[in-house]
Design brief:
Order of helices and strands: EHHHEEEEEEEEEHHHEHHHEEEH
Mean pLDDT: 93
Helix content: 40-55%
Distance between the termini: 28 Å
Largest sheet: 5 strands, antiparallel
Number of strands: 14
């Protein structure tokens, strides 16, 4: 059984829009007040946890000035505190990513457990706590499991989404003898050892003119006015379109690689270090390297495939795939083709993909 998230867009009515806005605001307030309380207590030499934040929230609800916290379901508020607890645990484990205060101008979300919504599988009806009518959801695909929890979100473009978490059986794909090495890059998004090339759609560049025009128009609007807010939403929709197109392309590419290959060898890149290069940071973010590897790993686990991640320090590009000799000259990104002393001529990306393929198979042998 695998836990799978299904995301759908929905269109709330006027009453639901008001209740969702109240829920998002209360969730944000519960999270921010717990974070502020934690910081205050830490400065006094006291450590706090989820139980302390929950007691603090209960006291706030009893205060007449915060009576509006009772107008929404209590489940999303408690889940906000659990998310904060998870954030602190992650911070203490890794040493970075200290929890930040939530902003009302950013993406809004609320998490509901099974006791805070009603699901009717027969009519495909989903009704949240405190709501009289079910959500009008666009069912783009179906699922068979029973929802264990769900998240409601609103992006900056004003679009609403519900992400439903269910447990389902995933069937492994038929075994195949084909294996492949994948070298990701900027000029071509992915070059495979068998010669397959996935071109980089360069989505940020594609919508750059449209985005720049909208941003120039925004600069001429009075900050805080209705026209300013409308133009901000237009810009948010362009960004959302870029993100959706990037996500769609990445899913299709990784699905193709998983369907056709038993073993996929890839390079484990440190994207956080790569984006420190200011000249390439924008292109690296647009290429979506981290998401490609993440999708390959979880899809391989679902469908009975194997992902072999080689070291980021493996010299895949400057190692001759024919004789194994290392390139001796000065190496740079400008070198796209090079010749070895063994008379072999290499395309940089194709040669890297072949070396990644060999090294990936060696690691899992």
């Amino acid at each position: 059984m695998k836990t799978i998230a299904y995301q759908y867009r929905f269109y709330p009515n006027k009453e639901q829009v008001i209740l969702l806005a109240q829920t998002f605001g209360c969730v944000r307030f519960a999270y921010n007040s717990a974070l502020a309380f934690s910081k205050e207590q830490y400065e006094l030499g006291n450590k706090t946890n989820y139980k302390d934040w929950s007691k603090h929230l209960t006291l706030l609800k009893k205060n007449p000035d915060y009576a509006w916290l009772k107008d929404v379901s209590s489940v999303p508020l408690q889940q906000a505190l659990k998310h904060l607890d998870k954030g602190f645990k992650s911070f203490f484990k890794s040493g970075f990513g200290y929890p930040k205060f939530k902003n009302k101008h950013a993406r809004q979300s609320a998490h509901y457990m099974s006791n805070a919504f009603k699901w009717d599988a027969g009519t495909k009806s989903l009704t949240l706590a405190k709501m009289k009518q079910p959500l009008k959801i666009k069912w783009s695909r179906s699922f068979t499991g029973t929802p264990s929890s769900l998240s409601i979100s609103q992006n900056k473009a004003g679009q609403y989404f519900v992400s439903i978490l269910v447990k389902e059986e995933t069937k492994s794909l038929p075994d195949t003898n084909k294996t492949i090495g994948v070298d990701v890059g900027i000029s071509n998004l992915a070059v495979c050892s068998d010669g397959t090339v996935f071109n980089n759609p360069r989505l940020t560049k594609k919508y750059a003119k449209k985005l720049a025009k909208a941003q120039r128009q925004l600069a001429k609007k009075k900050k805080g006015s209705n026209n300013f807010k409308k133009k901000k939403r237009v810009i948010a929709k362009v960004h959302q379109k870029i993100a959706n197109a990037r996500k769609d392309f990445t899913h299709k590419m990784t699905k193709t690689l998983i369907n056709e290959n038993q073993v996929i060898s890839v390079e484990s890149l440190r994207v956080k270090n790569m984006v420190k290069n200011r000249k390439l940071a924008k292109h690296i973010h647009d290429a979506n390297f981290g998401e490609i590897l993440r999708q390959l790993e979880y899809k391989a686990a679902w469908y009975g495939r194997k992902v072999s991640a080689i070291s980021q320090w493996f010299p895949s590009s400057k190692l001759c795939s024919c004789c194994g000799t290392m390139y001796e000259g000065k190496w740079s990104l400008a070198i796209r083709n090079w010749s070895c002393a063994c008379s072999a001529s290499h395309d940089r990306d194709q040669n890297a993909a072949i070396n990644i393929h060999k090294e990936g198979l060696r690691l899992i042998a």
